[in-house]
Amino acid sequence: MPSPHRPRFAEPIAADGPLLITMGEPSGVGPEVAIAAYHALNGAVGDRHLKLVGDPLVFLACGKVPSDAIIETHAAAKPRAPGNAFPENTRAVVDAIDEAVALARNGAAAAVITAPIHKAALMQGGFEYAGHTEYLAKITGADRAVMMLAGGDLRVVPLTIHLPLAEVPRAITQTAIVETGEIVLAGLRRDFGIANPRLAVSGLNPHAGEDAELGHEERDTIAPAIAALRGSGAQVLGPLPADTMFHAEARARYDAALCMYHDQALIPLKTLAFWEAVNVTLGLPIVRTSPDHGTALDIARSGKADPRSMIAAIKLAARLADARG
User: Fold this and answer.
1) What is the pTM of this model?
2) CATH (domain of 243)
3) Among 160, 162, 184, which residue's Cα sits nearest to residue 172?
4) Where do the DSSP E strands lie in the chain?
5) Is it the case that residue 156 has pLDDT exceeding 90?
6) Does the residue 101 lie in any domain?
7) 200 SS3 class
8) Sign of the C-alpha dihedral, residues 247, 252, 254, 256?
9) What is the pLDDT of residue 130?
10) Which pLDDT does position 16 carry in this prediction?
11) For tag attachment on the chain, is the N or C end more exposed, with fewer CB atoms within 10 Å?
């Protein structure tokens, strides 16, 4: 198991310049909420201007913006058709991400905010990654990227992300917990300005295993990993029963919660802060955030898409970029 002192995150890049918002799925709500957020923020957060990255025709189908607000990338093979995600548009979707990330890595942009992608359509089009997080780790050269969801006074991190529930226990290892915990603690210090962060770690089983009567993962894997993290001087609580760690008094005891699987982390976050929740990727050399919702193909072009999560993602990206700067 790696030492808790060994950094697992890429060297951060501090940059001035604009905040870049990628197109996401052309036929979903991503371009709509990007345009709505652009206007709600008057095209800037403080001194940082907003730039939209992708096919201009997709963005302009959702509303008007100044011509210099769009960084043009590969055109969509299929025109925007709300409600229909086309695998043929995979190259256009991925090219927008690639261009935004390249600009941020080169110091020409302060942060990347990604609109939602349609994973099934992309995979049908040859995309080999489970989602943004995994792909961003690959193209930025990060050893491990960690998905944090932040909203209100709660920050949560799922140890395992896009895995079937039946595969989760095998993926919970001491190495994974220690490495993820290191990245979360470092991110809380570096990007959120918390000098002495406190991390809560959930158990996997009901009642955190009930002294191994309801499962042995807490005793054999999770508790030793927590001990290793504490060995570096970190404040780490757990393993905690997941059903009692998210009420108000419990949340006051920690700055972020590391949970064992996707829904264990996202259900409380979305219950408490559904419209303001933001996805933050820790461990990358660049700042990346995104709204915590999907493509919502069923409401695209209906006027029902709510831009609050996108606005929150842009504002948080600016805050994180300022912290790095």
Assistant:
1) 0.91
2) 3.40.718.10
3) 160
4) 19-22, 44-45, 48-54, 70-72, 111-114, 146-151, 154-158, 198-202, 235-240, 256-259, 278-282, 288-291
5) yes
6) yes
7) strand
8) positive
9) 85
10) 75
11) C
Two structure tokens written together for 180: 């993820």
User: What domain count does the chain have?
Assistant: 2
Q: State yes or no: pLDDT of 11 exceeds 70.
A: no
**Location of structure tokens 């052309």:** 26
**Distance separating alpha carbons of residues 204 and 242, to the nearest angstrom:** 8
Which residues, 6+ apart, have CB-to-CB distance to 307 below 8 Å?
Answer: 32, 33, 36, 37, 40
Q: Which has the closest alpha carbon to 152: 79, 290, 248, 240?
A: 248
Q: Residue 234: give the domain boundaries.
A: 146-276
pLDDT at residue 105, rounded to an integer: 94
Among 309, 306, 323, 38, residue whose Cα is nearest residue 151: 309
Looking at the predicted structure, is the pLDDT value of residue 43 above 50? Answer: yes
Note the pLDDT of residue 143: 87
Give the pair of three-digit tokens for residue 81. 């058709």
Share of the chain above pLDDT 90, in %: 87
Residue 1 lies in a domain: no
Task: Tell me how far apart the terminal alpha carbons of the chain are, to the nearest angstrom.
Answer: 33
